[in-house]
Amino acid sequence: MFMSMVFGYTWLFILSPGETLPPYYTFAVWAVAISCVIELSSLIVQLVASAFLFVRLKVVLDTILIAIRTLTFISLIIRRPENALFAFGVAQLVAAVFYTTSHYTYFHFYITKLNKSKDKKKLPIKDGMDECLATEFPFKSITDFLPGQLDNSGSLLDKKLSILTWSFFRQGVLKQILTEGERLIMTFMPMLTFAEQGMYEIVNNLGSLAARFIFRPIEDSGYFYFTQMVQRDKPIADQNVVTVQESVNVLMQLCSVVTSIGLVVLVFGQSYSSLLLWLYGGSKLTADLPVLLLQSHCLAVLLLGINGVTECYTNATADSKTINRNNYIMIYESVAFLVVSYFFVSWFGPVGFIFGNCVNMALRILHSTRFIKRRHVGTKYAPLLGLVPKPIFVTFLIMSAIITKVSQAYFFPDGKLIHLIIGIFMFCIVIASWLYEHQDLIQLGINKWRNRHNKNKKSN
Fold first, then answer.
1. Phi, psi of 163, rounded to the nearest 5 degrees
2. Which are the contacts of 114, defined by CB distance < 8 A and separation ≥ 6?
3. What's 348's DSSP letter?
4. pLDDT in tens, 365-414
5. Ordered DSSP codes for 162-219
6. CA distance linking residue 273 with residue 257, whole number of Å
7. Cβ(354)–Cβ(300) under 8 Å?
8. Are residues 164 and 150 in contact, defined by beta-carbon separation less than 8 angstroms?
9. Measuring CA to CA, how many Å separate 100 from each of 61, 62, 117?
10. What is the model's pTM?
């Protein structure tokens, strides 16, 4: 609440574009601040849902959240297009209230059902939760989620956990600078016109869809998995061989998957950025600047995917001392990112922000891979080999890059359909080559699905 008031006041009275603010500008700023407070009040419940494997709950609520926010915004803006900021603010508040109340409501009914269940074999098991987790569910009432003090004979705060929490807090601030640094430069050093800023935001949001809907769930799930499988304070050689082997295999496969997705986006994005922007916003978005922005963003998508996996493993398995050291390194990375972005924007215009992000991601990847390599030194494990794509897959990617580029030169914009058909055909060939070289991963996924399906059948 304190941070919301400070930043809300700063945005309204220090960074406002002038005396003549658009209608409902003040309301929209405070709506965002209040919605942040409301949504973060459900963070404890979200952590519990993650820890006890309520996977389906998260997916369903996140999907409904997006739908409610979008439908609320559309229904209001259709009636009063001139009040876009009012519609935006109301949509934020409605979505935040829904997301928070739905979490608490779900667990209220789940805990009530759990308490009424006398037969342990009929416990309300959800999603990926097994019977053991349901039996050990520690919450007896929804009030247990509220702040309080556990019975213990030690000090008020656990010293080790407090240090770790403070380390993560500082790291979160630094990661925010690294993630949103270009917006800070746009706000405090107006080097771009509002039109260029708007164009950058449109293309950036469109290019970030892969990161939001593919890479982010992989990163979240990977972080939770590695925290359960790898101990922070013990060397890899001293840990359980089975769990270490499994975690290394998972890390290798995740690296391989995100690298492959990023390479596909990079290759096809060079030839189909114009077509995608035309489908998204018409001919106004097929000018040179938005196309160049989206083509450059495809490289950032590749680096974002690799960084997400390597960094989630680093954060999940590093001890507090390493995290503190990483925080100091991130300070230098943040300064380097802001300086590089400033000069790149001066030289290349809006595309410079994307190049600055690429440098930022490359530095973070280098730091994370060094940690992973150092973590497994002296062992037989080499999880970073997953970052190296297979030869047949790379060969067909190169062929696709050449063919689709020729197709764009000959068929775009007059023969858009032919250009699209050629891209779909080459995409299918690339995917087939990837599947051929990753048959072991496909078979593992099929076996996992069959085991879970059979387990659900038996439980029913």
1. -65, -45
2. 123, 124, 134, 137
3. H
4. 998 999 888 888 877 888 888 889 999 999 999 999 999 999 998 888 88
5. HHHHHHHHHHHHHHHHHHHHHHHHHHHS--S-HHHHHHHHHHHHHHTHHIIIIIHHHH
6. 22
7. yes
8. no
9. 10, 11, 26
10. 0.71
